[in-house]
Design a protein that fits this description.
The complex is a heterodimer. Chain A has 20 helices and 20 strands. By secondary structure, chain A is α+β, with helices and mostly antiparallel strands. Among the domains of chain A are: about 210-345, Elongation Factor Tu (Ef-tu), domain 3 (Beta Barrel), CATH 2.40.30; about 465-555, tRNA uridine 5-carboxymethylaminomethyl modification enzyme MnmG/GidA (Arc Repressor Mutant, subunit A, Orthogonal Bundle); about 570-625, DNA polymerase, domain 1, CATH 1.10.150.570. By secondary structure, chain B is of the alpha/beta class. The chains are: A alpha+beta, B alpha/beta.
Chain lengths: ~625, ~450
């Protein structure tokens, strides 16, 4: 790549090499778009700026959805995994949640190598200083080193770098997008000039400690599961295994925080913006939950080749000396040496109602936003948006129809729809409760849900398509096996008794047995040698087991989704003048004008638009169509 | 449907001193100007001459009041014109309003607009209709209570608690391993059990609530000439005027709506009908079979002091366990009133002795009738009354879902599966309040509304 790329015009230029940017670039390149990724440091692509883990409740499912669409995150997590756990095992499989602790140092290297596998993906190390705007649309980007790149569509995935400011205590504010990285100021200024709505959020990280100074005897050790992975495509194992550690910050640590509250950036007045309620700092916990006696502290391994530990649960914007002091009040950390202080970071975001469902910025053709710039938090949430923006930027460049997953199809669909429809009033994080079709959106059936679509779109390689086909066939075989095979009573009764359910006195089809809540199909298959062994993978069995066990419930959700479909597919005219629709309440008119929903279903989810308004809207639209 | 400005005569037709023409919509103010009412101070009754927009002719002297939206009945600008009553005046005023740009309102359209503009929820809409239709003090009271939001509040509160229950379960799913530890399963069970119980409490008096709107169906039965018609007329008292012979029902019976001690009844008498009127075969007891099946109360009449015949005994025996049976000894003034009549008392039949002629015992009978069907309504205390089939159906469905939730947990189904029942229960309560948009429900509710409301 030459510094100034002359007349070459990329299909898609992605600005920012975090979790959103990398997925966007990867997805665009997979679709055959001539793609360029511009990022501050190529060695830091996919950097884990917060905790060194991928997944968790809902997030793990998103990571698998991103993977099913050919994404990077799942593979990078598996390749660098130190500790895998399926969370929520005590609940039903619909909410099982894979989580991988990763080696923070190795993760970006895995991401970089995965990016380099993509043909048609160019990379450039540079800070973008401005967008090239001509004729009312984006035409490319310009870097601080004066290189210029022309492109048809630009995906902005700048994370917390837009006017990022890190805070520790009340008097230290360091300009930057992440510890050790400079902020993006010029670009932010230009964006502000575009007359876009802008807001400011904060998020925070906890301190890290030297593991050699931690008293492990006082900690609870948490081992990973023996098996499990996030990616559907490869069976790569991590470089080794490390446990996590659990301890509790009790009244002593709370007291230190309480005494020093006014020295906290957040409580001392240095930060006015809003942080995520669901990921509170220790200051928040002390102030908002005065009756909670102790807070869980989860020590995560930073990497295989370092003993450093990430002190999850104690995010803070207190000055370093206070951080040292409260750490010492935590059992097991009495002698701990802090290696890096925690800090809060404030950054610009753009209220996402300004985007359409492909994450395109409506007022500025050619511009897409993905990740934290849209007011979200979390690697997985960022990655999900990256995929959607990357795919659609590439589809648009190729003159193809856009693709937006529906709310009953993927958490990614829920996420994007929530963002562009409801907006955000705090950093947005996904939960299973945000999905109205929780039983359909499982971590076990991501390939079922998205694989075929991914293949049709052209996101998958030939090899991945074969894997997909194998898996789908596998599921069919597993289904047939469960339906057709009736084991002898004596080969299952032992297990049934053990599982605490009644035995059978004649041959019953497996399907019938698996419908009982206590009975596991995979267990049956694994237990008894005398039984005809299933000719399928465990993954396929899990899918089928779920579908059998909760058949009635799943069918009900499908039915509900079907009923809503009509409304979801009823498109609203893109040029609708809501201000003129007098039958709507003033509030609704304003909201509709602001969000500009694409479908009637989306309109119905805008807070403040009542079912009654929806009916009026339907009438108005029909009237105007004639 | 909405958006334009509508007008209608809001009062009943007929000779009357006053009538009200109501205009609602964005144009209401302008229409007032076109009718020569000039600028009207909001919420202030002003005497004006109302003129025809066509030729300026004075049509009536009226009192006009402008209620600007959104604080009006419909939530839109509303113009209320009190004009003279009678056959012509209101019609002329309405015609003038239509000429000035309003559209003729459909039945219930004002209230529908109030609902669509969030001025009322669906329960209050229904209460509005009930209030108009109320024929007894008790029904009136229940409607006023419901219009005031009593039931809405209660259902709204239950809905919030369902949301909290859902949150409790979801918290556990979305935040495993938090500071507070997992939610205690007993806490979830307790919350669910309490909700189920409270939904049951709401439903407990629903059948009576429905009766309160329609009137409890009380059928007078008995052999010919036992004094059924006299009893019927005596119970009607001054309300005799409202005896209706509705086409279609008169074939079998005369039906009258009557308020007894403030509670509504539909009293049915089969006396005086054709000889071949529908009889219970072989029993010689006059009562239309169709009514008997639907009756909430059966006033079984026999003269005081007379031995019962076989057929009468059979009738009593058959209905012995039926809470609706009220045995009445008529013509008490003619009997000697000496204790036991014929041993049926010993068999547990509680007779009420009345005399239609002297009025003796009628008060006691009224109390007995009210007590029989409306005891719950009377003694329900603070529990708001459910008065409609629609409401009861949805509440019942919600209760069932909460029950299924508990059952699913007992059976060991995982939380994310079980909790779908709580979600479903919430949707049913939203249906009660009209928060979910089902055109069907709206259709059902508004179908019986009158024009001008």
């Amino acid at each position: 790549m030459t510094a100034s790329d002359g007349d070459h015009r990329f299909d898609v230029i992605v600005v920012g090499g975090g979790h959103a940017g990398c997925e966007a670039a990867n997805a665009a390149a997979r679709l055959g778009a001539d793609t360029l990724l511009v990022t501050g440091y190529l060695s830091r692509v996919g950097q884990m700026s917060c905790n060194p883990a991928v997944g968790g409740v809902a997030k793990g499912t998103v990571a698998r959805e991103v993977d099913a669409l050919g994404g990077i995150m799942g593979r990078a997590a598996d390749r660098t995994c130190l500790h895998f756990r399926m969370l929520n095992r005590s609940k039903g499989p619909a909410v099982w949640a894979p989580r991988a602790q990763c080696d923070r140092g190795l993760y970006p290297r895995a991401v970089r190598s995965l990016l380099e596998e993509r043909r048609g993906l160019a990379m450039y190390q540079g800070m973008v200083s401005s967008l090239i705007l001509e004729g009312g649309r984006v035409r490319g980007v310009e870097c601080t080193d004066d290189s210029r790149f022309r492109g048809r569509n630009v995906v902005l995935a700048t994370g917390t770098f837009l006017r990022g400011a890190m805070k520790m205590g009340t008097d230290r504010s360091i300009s930057g997008g992440r510890a050790g990285d400079a902020p993006s100021l010029e670009l932010a200024e230009q964006l502000l000039d575009l007359d876009l709505e802008v807001g400011r959020f904060k998020t925070g990280t906890p301190p890290r400690v030297d593991g050699r100074t931690v008293d492990r005897g006082a900690l609870e050790r948490q081992e990973g599961d023996h098996e499990g992975r996030i990616s559907h495509w490869e069976e790569r194992r991590g470089p080794g295994s490390r446990p996590c550690w659990i301890t509790w910050a009790g009244p002593e640590a709370r007291a230190v925080v309480e005494e020093n509250l006014e020295r906290s950036a957040m409580y001392g007045g240095a930060i006015g913006s809003k942080g995520p309620r669901y990921c509170p700092s220790i200051e928040d916990k002390v102030v908002k939950f005065p009756d909670t006696e102790r807070h869980q502290v989860f020590l995560e391994p930073e990497g295989l080749e370092t003993r450093e530990l990430y002190v999850n649960g104690l995010a803070t914007s207190l000055p370093p000396d206070v951080q040292r002091r409260f750490l010492r009040r935590v059992p097991g950390l009495e002698e701990a040496r802090m290696t890096q202080p925690g800090y809060a970071i404030e950054y610009d975001y753009f209220p996402p109602e300004q985007l359409d469902r492909t994450l395109r910025l409506e007022p500025l053709p050619g511009m897409y936003f993905a990740g934290q710039i849209n007011g979200t938090t979390g690697y997985e949430e960022a990655a999900a948006q990256g995929v959607v923006a990357g795919i659609n930027a590439a589809l648009d460049a190729a003159g193809r129809e856009p693709w937006v997953p529906a709310r009953d199809e993927a958490y990614i669909g829920v996420l994007v729809d929530d963002l562009v429809t409801k907006g955000v009033d705090e950093p947005y994080r996904l939960f299973t409760s945000r999905a109205e079709f929780r039983l359909l959106l499982r971590q076990d059936n991501c390939l079922q849900r998205l694989g075929t679509r991914a293949a049709e779109l052209g996101l998958l390689t030939d090899e991945e398509r074969r894997t997909l086909e194998d898996h789908l066939e596998d599921v069919e075989r597993a289904r047939a096996w469960a339906e057709d095979y009736s084991p002898e009573p004596e080969s299952v009764n032992g297990y049934l008794e053990e599982a605490g359910t009644s035995t059978v006195d004649q041959k019953r089809p497996l399907e019938e047995l698996a419908a009982r809540p206590q009975v596991s199909l995979t267990e049956i298959a694994a237990r008894d040698g005398s039984m005809e062994s299933p000719p399928v993978s465990e993954e396929a069995l899990t899918v089928v087991e779920m579908e059998i066990k909760y058949a009635g419930y799943i069918e009900k959700e499908r039915e509900r989704a079907r009923r809503l479909k009509e409304r979801e597919e009823m498109e609203l005219p893109p040029d609708a003048d809501y201000g003129e629709m007098e039958s709507l309440s003033t509030e609704s008119r304003e909201k509709l004008e602001r969000v500009r929903p694409e479908t009637l279903g989306q309109a119905g989810r805008i807070p403040g638009v009542s079912p009654a308004d929806l009916q009026s809207l339907l009438v108005e639209v029909k009237k105007r169509r004639g | 449907m909405m958006g334009d400005t509508v007008a209608a005569v809001a009062t009943a037709p007929g000779r009357a001193g006053l009538a009200v023409v109501r205009v609602s919509g964005g144009e209401a103010r302008e229409i007032g100007r076109r009718l020569g009412l000039g600028e009207l101070e909001p919420r202030r009754a002003s005497v004006r001459e109302l003129t025809s927009p066509a030729d300026g002719e004075v049509l009536d002297r009226v009192v006009a009041t402008l209620f600007p939206g959104p604080g009006s009945y419909t939530g839109e600008d509303v113009l209320e014109i009190s004009c003279h009553g009678g056959a012509l005046a209101p019609q002329l005023v309405l015609d003038a309003a239509l000429e000035a740009g309003a559209r003729r309102a459909e039945p219930g359209e004002f209230t529908r607009r109030a609902f669509l503009n969030d001025r009322m929820d669906l329960l209050q809409v229904e209460a509005t209709e009930d209030l108009i239709d109320a024929t007894s003090e008790a029904a009136h009271r229940a409607a006023v209570e419901q219009l005031g939001g009593g039931l809405s509040e209660r259902v709204g509160e239950l809905r919030e608690r369902l949301v909290r229950l859902r949150a409790l379960v979801s918290y556990d799913i979305d935040f495993p391993g938090e500071d507070d530890g997992p939610v205690d399963p007993a806490e979830v069970e307790e919350a669910a059990a309490a909700l189920e119980e409270e939904l049951s409490a709401l439903l407990e008096h629903a059948p009576e609530g429905e009766m309160l709107r329609e009137g409890a169906l009380a059928v007078v039965a008995g052999r010919p000439n036992v004094g059924k018609s006299s009893l019927f007329n005596a119970l009607l008292g001054d309300d005799r005027a409202i005896v209706t012979e509705e086409p279609g029902t008169t074939r079998d019976a005369i039906e009258a709506v009557v308020s007894l001690s403030g509670y509504p009844f539909r009293l049915v008498d089969t006396a005086g009908l054709r000889e071949d009127a529908d009889r219970i075969e072989g029993m010689g007891i006059e009562v239309a079979r169709g009514y008997l099946e639907r009756a909430d109360l059966v006033l079984f009449c026999a003269e005081a002091g007379r031995e019962l015949e076989g057929a009468e005994r059979d009738f009593l025996r058959e209905r012995a366990g039926d809470g609706g049976l009220v045995p009445v000894r008529t013509k008490a003034d003619l009997a000697d009133g000496s204790g036991a009549e014929d041993g049926t008392e010993r068999a547990g039949v509680e007779w009420t002795r009345v005399s239609a002629r002297t009025g003796a015992g009628l008060g006691g009978l009224r109390e007995r009738l009210v007590g029989r069907v409306y005891a719950g309504v009377r003694g329900r205390g603070e529990t708001p009354l459910v008065t409609r089939r629609r409401q009861a159906r949805a509440l019942e469905a919600a209760r069932e879902e909460v029950g299924r939730f508990r059952e699913a947990r007992r059976r060991g189904l995982p939380p994310e599966v079980a909790v779908t029942h709580v979600q479903e229960a919430g949707r049913h309560l939203e249906e009660v309040l009209g928060i979910v948009d089902t055109e069907e429900i709206l259709g059902e509710v508004f179908s019986s509304f009158c024009i001008g409301k």
